[in-house]
Amino acid sequence: MTAPPAVPPTAVPTAPPTALSARGLGKRYGRRWALTECTLDVPAGRVVGLVGPNGAGKSTLLNLAVGMLTPTTGSIDVLGAPAGGGQLPKIGFVAQDTPTYARLSVADHLRLGARLNPAWDDSLAQARIQRLGLDPKQRAGKLSGGQRAQLALTLGIAKRPELLILDEPVAALDPLARREFLQDLMEAVAEQELSVVLSSHLVSDVERSCDYLVVLVDSRVQVSGDIETLLATHHRLTGPRRDEKSMPQHQHVISASHTDRQSTFLIRTDEPILDSAWTVSQLSLEDVVLAYMGRSALTQPKDRPVLEVQR
Questions:
Q1: 63: buried, middle or exposed (CB in 10 Å: 19+, 13-18, 0-12)?
Q2: What is residue 311's predicted lDDT score, i.e. its pLDDT?
């Protein structure tokens, strides 16, 4: 008797790699929760902009990611392993105040970086310092804010990380210093193929430097996805007054406003808008971000899905 032909195993699709993954993550200080029930996935190989209002939990999330804090609840994995473990040499971190040691010189910082980081690239660090025009003998406390930020970025990049985490690194800089910092960041991303998570209040900086967006409000991800796709799938509709409940099911209403005769909706949809009653206009990234930031996670139904947009 001839044996039946073997049936090839069904291929199981693999999930895209993540640089950072949190599940039910929370951090409490006494009675105050700085982060609660946060669940998100940050893709690897992308420059991810993390945006949200003050108090959303962005800095807490990033400090948990680099092991400076420990979770009260839930879990967080970075580069495939629990945060704070053996993957720390693979992570570069520039904190919100771009910390440097005021009494140490620029050269002292590079020597310290070399001693603390096994994959330290001294030629890269020295080349950056020279290109930026920083005096190796100058103490960090005498540098300008932009120069300290660039020194901190140099330390983060020269350790040759797989993931670079930046928590509001340019918030206190003037526009020129901010632009130079972001230009240098983009050059490093192109040269080293880094995964980057950049937290910022400035949507213009995210739009200039990032290709993926995560909007965090009240510890909850409101929307995440490729920025080009987000812009292509969000629209403003203006037309005769209409109730939100009458909108087609495939048009997810993000925000709505009304006058006596007119309605304006900001919607997300992957399908064409065929209703000729609407005037359709495109949105800027700032329009999209502000619309999601205006939605409080605490006032939304818990079963409302997070909008996740992939390329």
A1: buried
A2: 41
